[in-house]
Specification:
Layout: E1 2-8, H1 14-22, E2 40-46, E3 52-59, H2 68-87, E4 93-99, H3 105-118, E5 125-130, H4 140-151, E6 158-161, H5 171-190, H6 204-212, H7 222-231, H8 237-258
Parallel strand pairs: 1-3, 1-4, 4-5, 5-6
Antiparallel strand pairs: 2-3
Helix pairs in contact: 2-6, 2-7, 6-8, 7-8
Length: 277
């Protein structure tokens, strides 16, 4: 089974892209604004060549930064997602779903959270740009915005400019079918079914817990983090204390590596890093 993690902001069309790939409705397309960062839903889809894929529809960041409460909830979701992915053989592909429009800082935050931090740049990423049915040529969006993507250090192995809207007809309907072929072909091209997916190693959760702090404002209390790890993630108190301590140590070791990427906008000034108090 090939595992795909699809992520992006609310309204980016993640569920619609899943339905597009499946050729039928398997995912609810209602807004997921009530869901929290890294909360996920799993779907099994089969492409027209008979290959089965496990797709993890995952909630991304809605703002460039989390507050302390959102961070604690995201810990629980990350623990659940990582365990599920490990049990199923790891991640084979990332689909970064964005809505056609301006390239914003939140887009960069989601890219960094999933590609740089969560997957440590070890998983191929496809950029899927939706809501382009009204473009004269859907590919024109990428031509206009490739410079902005580069400015925000957003890179992909390939991209698809598509429409996943089903309430369309005529010329737009033809674009829908074209979009399905485009996305499915790219998924097949960049998913190696002969190798195992990326599982993040033994310290995957600890590393993710640490690096997630880079998106958090305020000072999450160590006791609150330990409380979440014990009550929601089922760890013993001793194990939770060890995880919290290891995460703090990783943050110190990784600072020099990620510090140049902590800025948003043109001034490239680093934002303060969050530490457990």
């Amino acid at each position: 089974m090939v595992n795909i993690v699809i992520f992006g902001e609310t309204g980016a069309g993640k569920s619609s892209v899943i339905n597009l790939m499946a050729g039928r409705q398997v995912a609810r397309t209602a807004p997921d604004s009530h869901r929290c960062t890294l909360q996920w839903t799993e779907y099994t889809i089969t492409l027209n060549d008979g290959t089965r894929y496990q797709v993890f529809d995952t909630v991304g960041l809605e703002e460039p930064r989390l507050d302390s409460g959102e961070y604690l909830t995201a810990i629980t979701n990350a623990h659940s997602l990582i365990n599920a992915l490990k049990e199923r053989g790891g991640i084979d592909l990332l689909l970064f779903c964005v809505r056609g429009g301006r390239v914003m800082a939140t887009m960069q935050s989601n890219y960094r959270l999933f590609f740089e931090f969560f997957c440590q740049e070890k998983v191929p990423l496809l950029l899927v740009v939706t809501n382009l049915e009204r473009e004269e040529r859907m590919e024109d969006w990428y031509t206009r915005n490739v410079g902005h993507l580069e400015k925000y250090n957003i890179h992909s192995v390939a991209h698809a400019c598509i429409t996943a809207a089903t309430t369309i007809d005529g010329r737009h309907r033809a674009r829908y079918e074209e979009s399905r072929v485009t996305v499915c072909d790219l998924v097949r091209a960049h998913c190696n079914t002969l190798t195992e997916g990326w599982t993040g190693g033994q310290g995957w959760f600890v590393s993710g817990l640490s690096l997630l702090m880079d998106f958090t404002t305020g000072r999450p209390k160590r006791t609150d983090v330990i409380g979440v790890l014990t009550r929601r993630c089922g760890m013993t108190k001793v194990a939770a204390q060890q995880v919290a301590q290891a995460a703090q140590q990783i943050r110190g070791e990784e600072f020099s590596r990620y510090q140049p990427y902590l800025a948003y906008g043109n001034d490239r000034k680093a934002t303060p890093r969050t530490v457990l108090s």
